[in-house]
């Protein structure tokens, strides 16, 4: 083992939670090291998550647009085809550039980067099993656990990452399957299902519950479900997969109604298991130092990101809360600010969530049902993109904006958007919520014309005054 080095902070995990925390620590003048075992920085998000999936979503969207929609705009392109290996290469280039970029940011912000797997040996010591074979011990005033999450396996359906894949395998397929079954109609299932459906696969999504993406506002979710069906995705709701095996290169699945009943079988070329993710703490040595986890394996923290061991903090996917990259980043910044004696804080009520399908679905704050469940008397304003001039001009009108506000005070409670660019449009609503705005505040804010964002203003008008202008 090499000589012990004393740091203010040692971060274990170089994903969006850990690497952002490390950079922020450097900026606050703390001495910091970041330990990452996968060989590249950026974690799940950059390597096998957010970024590669968005590259494939973009390429497949452009292909589907050219093939099916260009003629609507009077553009003739002849036969449209794609080169799947070139699509994959574009994705890999984007990922490689970004992960290297973080190494540059580490140098700029004086973050020591250790390539290897970290293990807690005490509340102030981390042992790193280096990828080069060397073992290093780091001493630290504070340790930040940012080890993220991994795929939740489905019993009876063993993942081989070629035929039965997780999102990681689905991002790296060598060819587009003819038939694909997606297990789980959540974020990964609908995004990756969309990618392959657009590229020509027949995609069937099998979902245990009666609804897709259970966390979405019910009304928006139903419109979204219809939109995906119109595009050609097939759904088998209230159904569970009990067995999956590869026979002669095909995947044979056994399905059962969720509430019990006769089993049926189904075949496909590739099956994607996307039923959720779980915290990753394997080999971390939590038990060595007494860091407590809950019944779902999540590291328990207090409102200051402190674990049951006071010098050890935890953030991101490994702690309770939404498993989102931007949430992990906010956690990371706040945790490090607290270590530096500042007042780091995250407002979880204003964390947006976005599904990057087409149309996109984005939301912030409470759904209508959630607001009612919390005892609010609500008023709701809605505006369809069919009535929005920009959406009409560009011929992309499938979608709506829904504003939920408190009936008595007009205080904004939640905003839900389905439509092209919903993921960009949601942030005015996030800002409004953060500032404690009323629906009228949005309704009286001048919005540029013609933009899709005017639909947010119109829905706010409908919520606040009972009437939109253009409806
Ligand atoms: P991670 O990104 O998982 O990073 C943890 C890192 O720690 C890993 O690199 C791991 O190798 C390392 N590590 C673990 N244990 C150790 C150890 N003992 N020693 C050293 N290193 C260790 N979120 C969004 O907000 N938007 C999206 O569009 C989006 N798309 C996604 C698409 C897919 C297919 C997937 C799978 C996820 C997606 N997510 C998205 C979720 C997002 O990736 C996670 O919420 C985010 O990466 C969590 O960040 P994190 O830093 O907590 O953990
Ligand atoms: P998810 O939690 O979003 O969805 C899982 C779905 O699978 C749910 O609808 C659930 O009811 C269903 N399900 C659970 N068990 C099942 C079973 N046995 N059979 C059939 N269906 C079953 O999880 P997913 O899609 O795997 O994604 C994991 C996480 O990664 C997301 O929750 C999200 O936090 C993150 N992510 C975020 C993205 C984004 O922000 N755009 C994109 C992709 C992932």
UniProtKB/TrEMBL annotation:
Q: Matching SUPFAM superfamilies, A to Z?
A: FAD/NAD(P)-binding domain, FAD/NAD-linked reductases, dimerisation (C-terminal) domain
Might you give the EC number(s) for this enzyme?
1.8.1.4
> Extra info from the record?
The active site is a redox-active disulfide bond.
Q: What is this protein called?
A: Dihydrolipoyl dehydrogenase
What cofactor does this one take?
FAD
Q: Which GO terms describe its cellular component?
A: mitochondrion; oxoglutarate dehydrogenase complex
Catalytic reaction list: N(6)-[(R)-dihydrolipoyl]-L-lysyl-[protein] + NAD(+) = N(6)-[(R)-lipoyl]-L-lysyl-[protein] + NADH + H(+)
Which top EC class is given?
Answer: oxidoreductase
Got any disulfides in this one, which pairs?
45-50
One of its Pfam families is: Pyr_redox_2
Q: Where does FAD bind?
A: 54, 118, 147-149, 317, 323-326
Lipid metabolism as UniProt keyword: no
Q: Which family does it belong to?
A: Belongs to the class-I pyridine nucleotide-disulfide oxidoreductase family.
């Amino acid at each position: 083992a090499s000589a012990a080095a004393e740091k203010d902070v040692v971060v274990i995990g170089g994903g969006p939670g850990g690497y952002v925390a490390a950079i922020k620590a450097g900026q606050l003048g703390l001495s910091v090291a970041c330990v990452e075992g996968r060989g590249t920085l950026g974690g799940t998000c950059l390597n096998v998550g957010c970024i590669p999936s968005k590259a494939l979503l973009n390429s497949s969207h452009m292909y589907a647009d050219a093939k099916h929609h260009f003629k609507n705009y009077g553009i003739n392109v002849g036969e449209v085809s794609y080169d799947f290996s070139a699509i994959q290469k574009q994705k890999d280039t984007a990922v490689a550039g970004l992960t290297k970029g973080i190494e540059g940011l580490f140098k700029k912000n004086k973050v020591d980067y250790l390539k290897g797997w970290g293990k807690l040996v005490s509340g102030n010591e981390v042992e790193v099993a280096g990828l080069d074979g060397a073992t290093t011990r780091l001493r630290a005033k504070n340790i930040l656990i940012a080890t993220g999450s991994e795929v939740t396996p489905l019993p009876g359906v063993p993942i081989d990452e070629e035929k039965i894949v997780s999102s990681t395998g689905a991002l790296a397929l060598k060819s587009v399957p003819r038939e694909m079954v997606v297990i789980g109609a959540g974020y990964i299932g609908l995004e990756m299902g969309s990618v392959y459906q657009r590229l020509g696969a027949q995609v069937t999504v099998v979902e245990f519950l009666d609804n897709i993406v259970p966390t979405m506002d019910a009304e928006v979710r139903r419109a979204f479900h219809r939109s995906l069906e119109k595009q050609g995705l097939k759904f088998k709701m209230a159904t569970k997969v009990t067995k999956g095996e590869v026979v002669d290169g095909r995947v044979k699945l056994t399905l059962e109604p969720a509430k019990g009943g006769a089993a049926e079988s189904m075949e496909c070329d590739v099956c994607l298991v996307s039923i959720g993710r779980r915290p990753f703490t394997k080999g971390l040595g939590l038990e060595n130092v007494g860091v407590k986890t809950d019944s779902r394996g999540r590291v328990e923290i207090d409102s200051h990101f402190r674990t049951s061991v006071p010098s050890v903090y935890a953030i991101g996917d490994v702690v309770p809360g939404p498993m989102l990259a931007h949430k992990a980043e906010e956690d990371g910044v706040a945790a490090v600010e607290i270590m530096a004696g500042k007042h780091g804080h995250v407002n979880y009520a204003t964390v947006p969530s976005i599904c990057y399908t087409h149309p996109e679905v984005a939301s912030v704050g409470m759904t209508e049902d959630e607001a009612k469940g919390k005892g609010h008397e609500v008023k709701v304003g809605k505006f369809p993109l069919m009535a929005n001039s920009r959406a009409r001009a560009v011929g992309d009108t499938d979608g709506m904006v829904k504003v939920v506000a408190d009936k008595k005070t007009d205080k904004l409670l939640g905003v839900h958007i389905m439509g092209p660019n919903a993921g960009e449009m949601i942030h005015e609503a996030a800002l409004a919520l953060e500032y404690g705005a009323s629906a009228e505040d949005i309704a009286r804010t001048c919005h540029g014309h013609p933009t899709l964002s005017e639909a947010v203003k119109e829905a706010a008008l409908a919520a606040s005054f009972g009437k939109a202008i253009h409806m």
